[in-house]
Amino acid sequence: MLHDVFSKYNAQFFVMYASSKNPNFYYATKFRVPDPVFYMVGDDGTELLVVPEMERRRAEKESRVREIASLNDIGYYERFSESGDPKTALAETYINLIKSHHGKRILVPDDFPAFFFKKFSDELEVDVIENPFSVMRAVKRADEIENIKQVSDAIIQTFRYFVKIVKKDRNSNSLRRKVESFLYSRGFVAADTIISGDLESSDPHCIGHGEFSSHVIFDVFPKSRSSGYHSDFTRTVVLEKNQEIEEMIDACIDAKKRAVERIREGVTGEEIHLLVCDVLESYGYSTLRQKAREGFIHSTGHGVGLEIHEKPKLYEKGELLKSGMVITVEPGLYYEKVGGVRVEDTVVVRKKGCEILTEFDDKVRMVE
């Protein structure tokens, strides 16, 4: 794919200046580093990671990049001594490095630092593009899918734990602490877990505050501390008889089921989204494609991997689905005077269907 990008723009190199907090950088290098470093990959086979001297040996052992150089190796400190300005010295050093590899036209991602972009543009032809690694990340390798499966398994264990403790604890803040601690003790990091009950649940991303009684949305999307991969899962737990809420859940379950049955390689994310809209509208609920302000007011799903929201999208103009993509399917309904419900699974797209990674009963009812 990178060759096609280079050909399209008639460029020699794609460069990033980022840390492993950037999922595209981590995907490209497999190197964990807290501060930004320079990475360049070329159409001529060049692949180079430039790190501070203190990180060089570790980068040689841990990264997947072919060639490692330190700032010392490429003359940064001499330029810094001359200019006294670390940013200018860095920019000049990287420009010289690119030129030494016969680079004249380069590509940078849209989150490339503005300072470096300005310096680079003074001496090189620079095009800003969507990061090609974000597109490459959409189709997962077998090892990536296994990493997401491990997170999915932990999620199901956590939800079983939640179902037990919610019998006695009906406080969103308390439950969130317990759930996130449960995950952390097993090697996973969760933040802003949604445990949103009663009328608060009508706001899809409200994490929940204080006591609830009728029903609660449980939405957790943790990351593995070892692999860096996520998974995503939501169930709405019914705690008291509420016919309107249960009818909304039933409609979402039907929409999710129909979507899962349709997902396979060759279908578009838009087709899946419109199918979910069709199902929910058939039950009499409003959807965003009708310009509604209540009802189904978000996309049907999104890709999951090193980010909790990544390509592809299940929405209008959603991309063609390919085998190996990992996506969420999450129909929801939200009404200010009633509350909200959502039912979500993470699935792997296969050639002739899909595989659900977060298997659990769709309807969770704890009415006494």
Overview of the structural elements:
- With 368 residues, the chain is α+β, with helices and mostly antiparallel strands.
- The protein has two domains: 2-136, Creatine Amidinohydrolase, Chain A, domain 1, CATH 3.40.350.10; 142-365, Creatine Amidinohydrolase (Alpha-Beta Complex), CATH 3.90.230.
- Helices cover 36% and strands 23% of the residues.
- It has helices at 2-9, 23-29, 53-62, 76-83, 86-100, 114-123, 132-136, 142-165, 172-184, 243-262, 269-282; strands at residues 13-18, 37-42, 47-51, 67-70, 105-109, 125-129, 188-189, 194-197, 215-220, 223-224, 233-238, 301-303, 310-314, 326-329, 332-335, 339-342, 345-350, 353-356, 364-365.
- The protein has a six-stranded mixed sheet. Strands 8-9-11-19 form a four-stranded mixed sheet, sandwiched between helices.
- Helix 5 (86-100) packs across helix 6 and helix 8 packs across helix 9.
- The model has no long low-confidence stretch (mean pLDDT 97).
Unreliable runs: none
The average pLDDT score comes to 97
What percent of residues adopt helix (DSSP H or I)? 25-40%
Strand content: 15-25%
SS element count, helices: 11
Class per helix and strand makeup: alpha+beta
Largest sheet: 6 strands, mixed
Instruction: Write down the CATH class of the largest domain.
Output: Alpha Beta
Order of helices and strands: HEHEEHEHHEHEHHHEEEEEHHEEEEEEEE
Assigned CATH architecture of the largest domain:
Alpha-Beta Complex
CATH third-level topology of the largest domain: Creatine Amidinohydrolase
N→C terminal distance = 56 Å
Radius of gyration: 24 Å
Number of strands: 19
Overall shape: it is elongated
Strand order of the largest sheet: 4-3-2-1-5-6
